[in-house]
Amino acid sequence: MVDAVAPAPSRRLPLWVIIAAPTACVLTGVFVLLWFKLPTWAPEWVVEHSLWVDPIVRAVDEVQRRPRGGALMVIEEALRRIESMGEAARPELLQALDSKSRTTRAFVLHVFSSTVDERLIGPLVRLLAKEARELEAQARTSGGASRIAGQRNQFDTIYAVLLNQPQAALADAILPLPAGNDLEAAVVFELAGKLADKRLIPALANILREPPGPWNELVGAVYGGRGLMAADALLHSPVPAAIPALLPAFEDASVGVRQVVVGAVRGLFKAVDFRLGQAMCRRLYDTDADVRRTAAKAMVFIEIPEAEDGLISLSQNAGSGDREAAIFGLGSIHATQRAIDRLAECLAGDVDEGVRASVIDALVKTDNSAAVPPLLRALGIGTPHVRRKTCFALSRTRWVHTTSVQEALILAIDDPDDPTSEWAEKTLLGRSLSPELKLRVQLAAEQQKSRREERARRHLN
């Protein structure tokens, strides 16, 4: 008897497999499509319902790109949702800092604005460097240094989040300080000047004494070279040892080092530490002309009363550059009567017309009524250029409303220098004058007009 042969197993797939496989593929495709496109199609819905951070961040980015309003409410909801996720949201947020979208990066920085977490330091320092490189590259393409100057505040948000983190760990992340003089180095130096970590002080002080490297024209126009970056960081540092570490540079044998630190102090545009003030006063007697002139011009901003003797002495030097710098420094809103008297002497007696023009500006800057008499004398007896500049300067001061200045301007209408005469007339006619003064101005103007017409006829004949 022959045994029955068992039927071969069927090679056909079960019906459920045939149905499930393409269904799974379709569902996967739909999920992937919705993952990437739903934040664009329905960002408000995504922010409200998504269980993941990445779609929420992309939805916020889409909302902010739209021309219509409503972004603020969506952002507030997104912040609330992400906050409710707690620590679980942190890894995705850190990844979002690498986004190509500046809007996305700005949103994530806003999320982290009050977060204290040492894990943020590395990604944020890298983001700072990345944004610096991007801005420098953009500026080289268009805008130049003015673009960097106009957008340098974009780093402030990153600084703010970083400064919330443990200072020692943050100092570890930026030490050693960058070796270049590009924008990346500039922003790291600026950050170093905000940190209360004493290890940064010798690192910055050593940079002051480095030999100058190649000049980065683009970044240097805004931040200066490495030496100036380091000096500026020390001047702004909250570490008590920063100023003592900077002081030796004012006496350094290198003119370049002295020029850097004096220039850095001038750039503060505000009152300075007494020790810095004393160091700056000594530089008024520096053997290098550029150093002493920079120091002199700085005095109008940093308010050092002790500088008056040095400035007056410098105003008597043979070089007109020294005299102009000293005059600029004396023209402070805090100028004493002695300083104003010295300015008046220069206005009356200096042989250089450029110096006398500088005196006019300095006297006006004092905003002191004691400056009026020497200006009025210059309006009456100075050279045409000095009279013209004095007339223009007086017209823009608060003293133009006083009787003495208005009387002097009426006389200036008769000035043989046409620009002086015309400006005096224009100034007075633009003011609210008494009927008597207004009549005198009109008569003087008519007489001057007649004299001009007579001169024109003579010239033609």
Keywords:
single chain, 461 residues, 27 helices, 0% strand
Give an account of the 3D structure.
The chain has helices spanning 15-41, 43-49, 53-65, 71-85, 90-96, 102-111, 121-141, 144-151, 156-162, 167-174, 183-192, 200-208, 217-223, 226-236, 242-246, 255-266, 274-282, 289-302, 308-314, 320-330, 337-349, 353-366, 372-381, 384-395, 403-412, 418-429, 435-460. With 461 residues, it is an all-alpha fold. It has a domain at 371-455. It contains 27 helices and no strands. The protein is 68% helix and 0% strand.
What's the short story on this structure?
With 461 residues, the protein is mainly α. It has 27 helices and no strands.
What is the topology?
Elements: H1 15-41, H2 43-49, H3 53-65, H4 71-85, H5 90-96, H6 102-111, H7 121-141, H8 144-151, H9 156-162, H10 167-174, H11 183-192, H12 200-208, H13 217-223, H14 226-236, H15 242-246, H16 255-266, H17 274-282, H18 289-302, H19 308-314, H20 320-330, H21 337-349, H22 353-366, H23 372-381, H24 384-395, H25 403-412, H26 418-429, H27 435-460
Shape: extended
Distance between the termini: 151 Å
Characterize the biggest β-sheet.
Answer: none
Taken in chain order, the helices and strands follow as: HHHHHHHHHHHHHHHHHHHHHHHHHHH
The helix fraction, in percent, is 55-70%
Supply Rg. 35 Å
Mean pLDDT: 87
Proportion of strand residues: under 5%
Q: How many H/I helical runs?
A: 27
* Poorly predicted spans: 29-37
Based on secondary structure, the structural category is mainly alpha
Q: What's the count of strands?
A: 0
